[in-house]
Every structure is written in C-alpha cells, then in structure tokens.
Please model this.
Amino acid sequence: MKARPDPLAGTNAGARTPDQDMPPAALDILFTPLTIRNLALRNRFVMPGMQRGFMNDGAPSPKMIEYMRRCAAGGAGLIISESTSPDHPSGYWQPVMGRMERGTMRQWKQVVDAVRGEGAGFLLQIWHPGSMRRVADGHPLARHPALSPSGLIQAGRGNGRAMTSRELVELKHAYVQAALHAQELGCDGIEVHAAHGYLLDQFLWAETNQRDDDYGGCTLAGRARYHAEIVGDIRKAVGEDFVISFRFSQFKEVDYGATIASDPEDLRGMVGLLRKAGVDLFNVSSRRCHKPEWPASAHPDYTIAEWTRSMTDAPVMTCGSVGLNVEMFANLFDDQEPSELMVEQDLGLLADRVRRGTLDLVGVGRMHIANNDFVNKVRAGRFRELELFSKKTHLMEVFENLEPGFQEEGRRNVSVE
Ligand SMILES: Cc1cc2nc3c(=O)[nH]c(=O)nc-3n(C[C@H](O)[C@H](O)[C@H](O)COP(=O)(O)O)c2cc1C
Model:
C-alpha cells in the first residue's frame, strides 16, 4: 500500500507499518459523539450529498428510501441528502434530480424516517445549478432560462442570464420554503450547497460574479452577502433548534484551480459573516482532503477545512478522496478509476487532526457508495473487507438514468493536479 505524505509524522498516525491493519483504538476519536444544536451525532462520519439517479420526477423512489436506510444502518453519524432543488422552475432539469416541494414531501418523509430510525442524523441539501443548467430546446423547462449572478459559467463562457433583484428575492424565499418543508418532515437541518461551481458558488467566485449591486464585490465577504441573507432568513423561519450547514469549495467542476478565497483573510471574512447569519456547520469540500491550502503561510500544513476551523467556533467537516487514491472529478468525468484503498492511512491522519482540534467531521463519499456499511466495517477493523469504489461497477446506473438532451454544461477545465 502506498502511504500519503504525512505532515504529522511522529504522531500516532505515523506509528504503524504501512501494510498493517490500523488498530481501531487509534481511530477512537472518530467514534466520539458530537452535538450541534439539537442534533446529537453518534460519531464523526458523514455521508455527504451524492446524486444517485434514484428519484422519480423529483421524489425519492422506494429504491432511494431503502438505499438511504441501508447507509444509515451502516453506521454513519450524519447523512446528507443529495442536491435537491427548491421549488423554482430554474432549479433543476432532470426528472431524476430531487426536488423539495409539496408534491414530493410524502416520499421525502419516508427517507427522513428511514434514516433517523437507524440512528443517523439527516440534513436536506438545498441546491440550485445556476448557469450549469442546460435544457434541450423545445422542452417545457427551456422556457425558464438558466439563472446566475452574471450569466457566466466561467470567464468568457455564457449560459442564460443574470438574475434580477426580483428573482434574487423569489429564490431566497424558495430556499426558506424548502427549509421549512424539511423541518416539517422531521429533518435535523438543511445544508446550503454553495460549492463545485453551481449557483451559490457562482456568486462566491469573482470570475462568475461580476455584479455591481450589493451582491458582487472584490472581497469574498462581499460576494457572500446573498448567502448570508439566505441563511439569516432560514434561521428566522426555522428557529433555534434546526441545524444549518454551509458547503463550499475552492475548486469548481469547470476549473480545478479556481479559488474563491485568495488568502486566509479573505476566507475569514466569509466565515465570520456566515457564522453570524446562523451557520452551525461548515462542510468544506476539496478534491483531496489532505492537501495543504497555503503552504507558504503561517500554517503550511493546514488544509482549507482546517483554515476554516481556525476561524470559527462552529464545527467543520472535511471531504474529498478519503480512502481512495483518485479524486472524484478525475474518477467521474475523466474515467480514472481508483486503484488503491487508502482508508487506514487517511483515517489515521484525519483522526489526528480531530484530536488536535483542527477538524470535527469526516465526509466519506464514494466509499459509502461502494460500502453502505463503511463505518461499521471501520469500527470493527474489517479494513480488508472494504470494496474499492469503481465508477464502472457502482455508478453506471446514474449515467444511464439521465435523459439525453438534458446535460449539465460541459467541462472546460484548466489542467491542474
Ligand atoms: C455520484 C456522485 C454524486 C455527487 N452528488 C453530489 C451532490 O448531490 N451534492 C454535493 O454536494 N456533492 C455531490 N458529490 C460530491 C460528494 O459529496 C463528495 O464531495 C465527493 O464525492 C468527494 O468525496 P469522496 O472522494 O469521498 O467521494 C457527488 C459525488 C459523487 C461521486
């Protein structure tokens, strides 16, 4: 097995020989509980939002309900739903994408009950594609243009148009309504998706936010004002017990090298603003959870998630390539399949970071798809029974279920490692 470069060499994580099973005791910290508002998590493992193509016209199918139940029974402390559109015609373009609206609530209730019944917490992820949405000409949904801060997918590349002030208010109400529906269904909270190059990330990224009203600007905090309003309005509507998570990333699906925060101070402005508005948990998504963000800074080994944690009293979750040697985007879009399991090494490093107080929660994506009982296997030290994730084996169904003519905007990536 190949070892990751280990910036914590000399601590617990470095004490093993590379091909030895990790004694579960070294990971004990990952099995300690954590409470966020009214949500008591049984451990530090999270299954992050992942679209599976199991929705029937926006509503969870029986297959989705059973899948979510199985993942919760598999031991994760927290399950986050796949990206789900609020009730707005510009918010989705595929029948297999989740929608939170009156007509889908009965099936969503079954997901919430199934997950919570197995002892995991559950957050609904609220998402909007922004300019990444492309609907085939002639389809009824094509009447609604793709909406975004400035009509851009990335510099020099347009789709749809900039949102008017009225549309900004309308969509904010739709986010609040989705959160209220989630609360009515018994969810523990919601997650505002502002990552990976979709609508709310398009506001955070200077390249796609060229607005000259209150929602643009040259600082990240300035470009996060719309998010702060959405979070603040949700907080007012749902009260004090309900958890609000905020997911962001530096990278975009269309540009791996993109950044929303140019330096730690820029990041600090956004984190402070959102925390004040009502965010309880920062879910920081990266392609590789162990990659230092600003190596020439005062904390050369801090990842973007750890930088975030250093700026807030709210818990922080990391996510990205836990247990796998190939990151998600190269895996899904460039067909590079993982060839090595890195579970013991990665969890060892992350456990040390939780112990030193620079992280709180660990997101495990694809390895949860391949092993719905990932957490139970890790807890039992059954690492050798873990199955390696493969797009070909575990995900073809997602791609097969997409309707032709409704594709996401294609990727035009800047090549970076
Ligand atoms: C099939 C698939 C679907 C995904 N869908 C979503 C999504 O709906 N919302 C989201 O925030 N991230 C989504 N992601 C990203 C994951 O939440 C996670 O950040 C990513 O897979 C990296 O974690 P991993 O390396 O552990 O897989 C998806 C990932 C995969 C593999």
Confidence is low (pLDDT under 50) at residues 5-19. The pocket of flavin mononucleotide is lined by residues 48-51, 82-83, 125, 193, 195, 247, 285, 319-322, 324, 328, 332, 364-366, 395, 398 (CB under 6 Å). The first strand starts at residue 34 and ends at 36. Residues 165-185 form the longest helix (21 residues).
